[in-house]
Amino acid sequence: MKSDRLLSILLLLQTRGRVPAHELADRLEVSVRTIYRDIEALSASGVPVYAERGRHGGIELLAGFRTDVTGLTADESRALFILAAQGAHAALGLDAALGSALRKVMAALPAPHRPAAEVTSRRILVDATRWKSGPQQAVDLEVLQDAVFADRRLRLRYRHSGDREPRTYTVDPYGLVAKAGVWYLVADRRGAPRLFRADRIRSARPLDEPVRRRPGVELADVWEVLRRQVEDRPEDGIDVTVRVRRARLDMFQRVMAAQLTELPDDDGESDWVTARLTFPVPRAVRQLLAFFDQVELLDPPEARAELLAAARSVTALYQEDPSTRD
Fold first, then answer.
1. What is the predicted pLDDT for the residue at 199?
2. Contact in structure between 277 and 255 (CB atoms under 8 Å)
3. Distance between CA 83 and CA 149 in Å, rounded?
């Protein structure tokens, strides 16, 4: 609706100051010509807005002009009080600030919308962490935040998965991303995008050098590239067939839900039921050892061999006398 668009333009200008017409058009998904028509409509309604042409031109409000109109609809008011990824605020030290901000928003809401927003905050909760994700190592994001906001390069000591010792990197940070309860530092290293899990950073030190980001590239752009690299990464997946003791079937389905590709065929009578699963790499079938003799891997042979090798390794470890070790 045009009225919503006019209000969006007004709030953007109030927040950002001078904004190029093409940027407003991109954000509001309209043409530049439409933006100029909207500016004329705002001016005609008494809003002191003007446009400056030229290389550094743009659309701007008269200095000092402010409006206390929130323009929030009922649905927008409710959306603000659904606190997604609450752990993110705590990790950034912003829990108190968030509470204060929401109280101010509540006070500024149109009176008819306040009850719905308050009920929403008590009835809807979004927890971005995964089930059974295990204890997470405490992450100190303060140094990373400081470098990101101060536009400084970072010297990291970072331990990769599978490495015993950390490596040293000098990186140019774009920002921080919270993905499913895990924090990542998004940065360039030697001009190439890199992703660093915050809980694997052993130390971080901002340098006196200014950050060297690629021109015109923003955090969202780099994250999109890195996200696609992870999601599109080719994997040597493996499909397996197992049989499960029916007494443990409920637990098996809960624990292995992400790997199940075909629900177990349970006739309600047999002691064993058959199920099919997919693992990203052959070595991952070792997860089935957690079920001891309650799950048997039937096929393929190479998956059975992988599981047998793992079982033999565990058996050899416990047959060894600990007192004879160095």
1. 84
2. no
3. 24
Alpha-carbon distance of 262 to 240, in angstroms, equals 11
| Rounded mean pLDDT, 189-207 | 88
Query: Which residues touch 149 (CB under 8 Å, ≥6 apart)?
Result: none
Question: In the block, which residue shows the tokens 């058009």?
Answer: 25
Confidence bin at 6 (pLDDT 50/70/90): confident
Q: E strands, the chain, where?
A: 49-52, 58-61, 152-158, 167-179, 182-189, 192-197, 201-210, 238-245, 260-265, 272-279, 295-299
Of the candidates 152, 231, 143, 216, which has an alpha carbon nearest to the alpha carbon of residue 187?
152
Instruction: Using the structure block, give the residue that is written with the tokens 């929401």.
Output: 102
Most confident of 89-103, 221-235, 299-313: 299-313
Element (H, E) at 9: helix 2-16
pLDDT of residue 173 exceeding 70, the answer is yes
Tokens of 3: 């009225």
Tokens of 303: 């998956």
Residue 296, pLDDT > 60, answer yes
Per-residue pLDDT at 138 exceeds 60: no
Q: Report the alpha-carbon distance of residue 282 to residue 266 in Å, rounded.
A: 26
pTM for the whole structure: 0.52
d(CA 91, CA 159): 21
Burial 46-70 (b: 16+ CB within 10 A, else e): ebebebeeeeeebbbbeeeeeeeee
- Residue 82, pLDDT > 70, answer no
Closest residue by Cα to residue 214 from 180, 189, 248: 189
Residue 83: predicted pLDDT: 56
| Short-list 17, 94, 83, CA closest to 56 | 17
Give 150's Cβ-side CA count (13 Å radius): 15
Q: What angle do CA 175, 178, 180 make, to 5 degrees?
A: 160
* 191 alpha carbon, distance to own chain's centre: 23
Across residues 292-321, what is the average pLDDT?
Answer: 88
